[in-house]
Design a protein that fits this description.
By secondary structure, the protein is of the alpha/beta class. The chain is built from 7 helices and 5 strands.
């Protein structure tokens, strides 16, 4: 059998073709970037039991070949997320971005206008980068005052409407609004126990599934 000789140009062409094929395959795989705080960073939990890890399992069960990047940091605010997002978008090039930020803004009593502006800016930046955005809504206890409580819980839907993004009304529905919510939280009464995270995923999944279609 006669084997032809390959020139240097042949090797280069073959290498480029292989790389192009790899890029094409990667380009068809959804990349879900989660930018959140301790609720998404598995604070106080065993690794792999938080809702983001459970999301990876759900995607596999649903036969959705998507990559999940968890860029969540405990204690992060919308301002912190805003400063981090540009490099995250450049590095990971996500097709979908889940913004789970805002709770720490409220806990610190930060102005709601700043929280709204940061969420709006992040949503727009992600959309301009080609990603579909899902805002994860939160609520604060009534001791913050009725006006603050209502305005805070409403700003997620407001930003989503203005930016034509998707929104989860309340991330901790079925966790923090049950008759005895203390049973679902760690001793600090702020961070949910591992048992609560499947429900948290159930709150996010319906909206994310729509975006993945």
């Amino acid at each position: 059998m006669r084997v032809s000789k390959w020139t240097r140009r042949d090797f280069i062409a073959a290498g480029l073709a292989a790389c192009h094929g790899g890029w094409a395959a990667a380009a068809g795989t959804p990349v879900i970037l989660v930018v959140g705080d301790s609720l998404s960073a598995e604070y106080g939990l065993k690794r792999g039991t938080g809702w983001v890890a459970l999301l990876e399992q759900r995607l596999a069960q649903e036969k959705v070949a998507a990559k999940v990047v968890n860029a969540s940091i405990s204690g992060d605010t919308t301002s912190g997320g805003r400063s981090r997002l540009p490099s995250l978008l450049q590095q990971h090039k996500p097709t979908h971005v889940i913004l789970e930020l805002g709770a720490n803004d409220a806990l610190r009593g930060l102005p709601l206008k700043g929280t709204e502006d940061n969420l709006s800016w992040m949503t727009e930046a992600a959309q301009k980068a080609g990603a579909r955005v899902l805002l994860v809504g939160m609520q604060v206890p009534p001791n913050y005052g009725t006006d603050y409580t209502n305005r805070f819980s409403g700003l997620f839907a407001k930003v989503a409407k203005e930016r034509k993004a998707a929104v989860v009304p309340f991330f901790l529905a079925g966790v923090a609004d049950v008759p005895d919510p203390t049973a679902m939280f760690q001793s600090d009464r702020i961070h949910p126990r591992a048992e609560a995270h499947p429900r948290m995923l159930d709150n996010v999944w319906p909206e994310l599934k729509k975006l993945l279609k």
